[in-house]
Amino acid sequence: MNIKRRTAEPYKIKSVETLSMLSRTEREESLKRAGFNTFLIDSQDVYIDLLTDSGTTAMSDAQWGALMTGDEAYAGSKSWKQLEQAVRDVYGYEYVLPTHQGRGAENILSQLKIKEGDFVPGNMYFTTTRAHQEMNGATFVDIIIDEAHDPSINLPFKGNVDLTKLQALIDRVGANKIPYVCLAVTVNLAGGQPVSMQNMKDVYELCQSYSIDVMLDATRCVENAYFIKEREDGYGDRTIASILKEMLSYSDGCTMSGKKDCLVNIGGFLAMNDEELYIRSRELVVVYEGMPSYGGMAGRDMEAMAIGIREAVDDHYIEHRIGQVRHLGQQLLDAGIPIVQPIGGHAVFLDAKAFLPHLAQEKFPAQALAAALYVDSGVRSMERGIVSAGRDIQTGEHIKPNLELVRLTIPRRVYTNNHMDVVVDSILSLYEKRDWICGLKMVYEPPTLRFFNARFAPLAESGKLIDEENKVKQIS
């Protein structure tokens, strides 16, 4: 008999943290205080926190030990040398500048590369990345394949760039108006979808022919490398480390939020191969971050990141990482719950449009579903739809993305599969009473990155989010 053998976590638990388990009434009060925005819920009121995988990693014993060896010198820190060497060894870039986190690197890159009237093409936007590009005068242009905007289509590399779209943009505005292509690996807002090695190579070769740089958002590049190993011909017998090194060779640099695939709670970096850009970037690091030998991080944080960079390319670690996300996602698929397919690398994304078809997009169905999930079980997730997309900077109207999603983001090395089973049970329960979930209205809207601090109120006449008596009778 050929029985598929189950595997366990490639680590053992050395320390535990007690989780809060509030009553439903207490959760309803907590959500109301937060303005029905899961970002504003106190963490002490959360049972299973799937808000983000950013900075929520459980560090290893080696990383915790390294905290005690951190060199906190203001200049020339030994810990910085450890981090710089790890980036060179694992990622292959020549020049590295530390930042407090990924958006610090985005800020510096955008200021130095973008001029008013430029266009920055990318394989789907990300919130903070696009904000920095727009604040510096650029227009973001989505060049991802069309299939990425349809959650039901199952393709191995839905993060791929449509080369025809890229060429059309170059022909329309001219290469001198495109400072760089922003290539995300993986693509967060598409559902954690990867880019193939061949597509990365094709994009790089096309851009080289026009002297256009390719700058990666490498935040989850190790996850992308795993999908290449699993899905692309010729890579099945390669190590994750070797695949990653080849991936990044088809780029001119990257921004990195170390809070994801570098397995730490804070920090990031900007890396590149262009010495001139490095020198200019180094000057801005001093203005916005700190000395080029710490860039907003303590020495102990750099020590931990240097170790995390190397731990992340361990094949056993990343296999389990992707496997846990699939453990959650496959159960939902098997139960008929609408999610983005294929299951991505860092999260499972609920398709809120299909989950709550009675709610128009202007009633913020993904925001409502994330709030309802917290009420039902204390599981915190986040909206990735019309709220996150913001408003058109020209018209002021809501941007209405095709993807209206709730992101269930799995922190690295934090939860067991039993926790994922609890999440599944809650979602199945909500799906049975989905007609009772009402829409929301926005009662406070920040001018920028509104999803972080916006506040909402239920549209149901009863004032309840899950109105089991009145179903979907709502105030227009």
From TrEMBL:
PROSITE patterns associated with the record: BETA_ELIM_LYASE
Protein origin, superkingdom: Bacteria
UniProt KW Lyase keyword: yes
Matches recorded under Gene3D superfamilies: Aspartate Aminotransferase, domain 1 (3.90.1150.10), Type I PLP-dependent aspartate aminotransferase-like (Major domain) (3.40.640.10)
Subunit note: Homotetramer.
Domain Aromatic amino acid beta-eliminating lyase/threonine aldolase: 49-424
Pfam family, one: Beta_elim_lyase
Known EC number: 4.1.99.2
Keywords: Lyase, Pyridoxal phosphate
SUPFAM superfamilies hit by this protein: PLP-dependent transferases
Listed name of the protein: Tyrosine phenol-lyase
Cofactor: pyridoxal 5'-phosphate
Reactions catalysed according to its record: L-tyrosine + H2O = phenol + pyruvate + NH4(+)
Enzyme kind, highest EC tier: lyase
One example GO MF annotation: tyrosine phenol-lyase activity
Annotated family: Belongs to the beta-eliminating lyase family.
Residues bearing PTM N6-(pyridoxal phosphate)lysine: K260
